[in-house]
Write a structure and sequence with these properties.
With about 325 residues, the chain is α+β, with helices and mostly antiparallel strands. The protein is built from 12 helices and 11 strands. The strands form 3 sheets. It has a 5-stranded antiparallel beta sheet. The protein has a 4-stranded antiparallel beta sheet with strand order 9-10-8-11. A two-stranded antiparallel sheet has the order 1-2. Helix 4 runs antiparallel to helix 5 (about 115-130).
């Protein structure tokens, strides 16, 4: 019985951590009490005692709960999304080959009790681990130059510019054209997005809000302006999280268009998580059809290829043609399509 109680307590703490992450903004202890009324009961002193214990136990589990000082002196708590992820897996070529061979051998037995788990684990390794064969969705980023050594220094410059509302001058490498363009940018915010630092702001060259990957910046400094800052105003409705949480198919590359993806096998079960905003329906063969509006068709194409043969881009035809181009390019370069 003590073991069961311990497992239940850990599940409750994980649920609490998940609530903080889903909230996306700091929460006071009163917010926590209100969100979990069955957990925090009794007198204010009893609630405070349990909250103190939960904070300590979260730290013990490796979930860093950070205190944030607020203007009203109440204070609040938050969990930084990337602060407790496990380090990226790294395998030597020999280790990767052995691991992949063993996993595929296990997948050869359809009655294996862990068949679906092994398949999901292998898919994650193919997407995220160094030393394993690259998938189509990672080819472009793999060809890009390494992040510049000044990146950490530039983050400080960006943070100061945002605080002072000072215009920045960027020399920015555009991989699609393999060229560097110079532009002045009004920085609205910056964030960590799926392994990359991004800067979001008004590009005076393109006359629109744009996202800039700091690893593609070749030079960055405060722009020369006649007047003292502030040089601009950040729109009242701007929220950097709307950009940091974008999926690749949501990037503003073209006008919105509708696409359809068919999920089969193990992917059909998790289709709502793969395309959370899609309209889902079940086909006669029990596959799931997902219709989703995209603004970067190329991003969806590459992601479907990364998901593997259980994800098929049904339409538009332009997306299917693009997928064939990518696979042909992989085959021509000696890769395994």
């Amino acid at each position: 019985m003590p073991q069961l109680d311990e497992n239940a307590a850990e599940r409750r703490l994980i649920k609490l951590a998940a609530w903080f992450l889903a909230r996306g903004e700091p929460a006071t202890r009163e917010d926590v009490y209100e969100a979990f009324p069955d957990e925090y009961v009794g007198s204010p002193a009893a609630k405070e005692k349990k909250w103190s214990r939960d904070k300590r136990d979260l730290q013990r589990l490796g979930v860093p709960l950070r205190f944030v000082e607020e203007l009203d002196e109440k204070g609040a708590y938050t969990i930084d999304p990337g602060s407790f992820y496990l380090p990226k897996l790294e395998f030597a070529a020999g280790e990767a080959a052995v691991l992949q061979t063993a996993a595929r051998a296990a997948l050869g037995d359809p009655d294996h009790p862990l068949h679906d788990d092994v398949e999901a684990a292998l898919r994650k390794l193919l997407l995220g681990a160094a030393g394993l064969p690259p998938r189509a969705a990672t080819l472009e980023s793999a060809r890009e130059p390494a992040a510049p050594p000044q990146l950490r220094k530039w983050l400080s410059v960006v943070a100061d510019a945002i605080e002072d509302q000072r215009v920045l001058h960027l020399d920015y490498w555009v991989p699609a054209r393999d060229e560097v363009t110079s532009r002045d940018v009004e920085p609205y915010g910056y964030a960590w997005r799926r392994g990359d630092w991004i800067l979001v702001g008004w590009c005076r060259l393109r006359k629109a809000v744009r996202v800039f990957y700091l690893r593609r910046v070749r030079a960055l400094a405060p722009a020369k302006q006649k007047q003292q800052p502030p040089h601009f105003e950040v729109p009242a409705d701007f929220d950097v999280r709307a950009w940091s949480r974008q999926e690749t198919w949501d990037y503003l590359a073209h006008a919105p268009l509708e696409a359809t993806v068919r999920f089969r096998g193990s992917l059909a079960k998790i289709a709502p998580k793969l395309l959370p905003r899609a309209k889902l329906s079940v086909a006669p063969d029990n596959s799931r059809m997902a219709r989703v509006v995209v603004r970067n068709l190329d991003g969806l194409v590459r992601q479907c290829l990364a998901w593997g043969p259980e994800a098929e881009l049904v339409e538009p035809e332009a997306g299917r043609a693009r997928a064939r181009e990518i696979l042909d390019a992989i085959a021509a370069s000696g890769g395994a399509a």
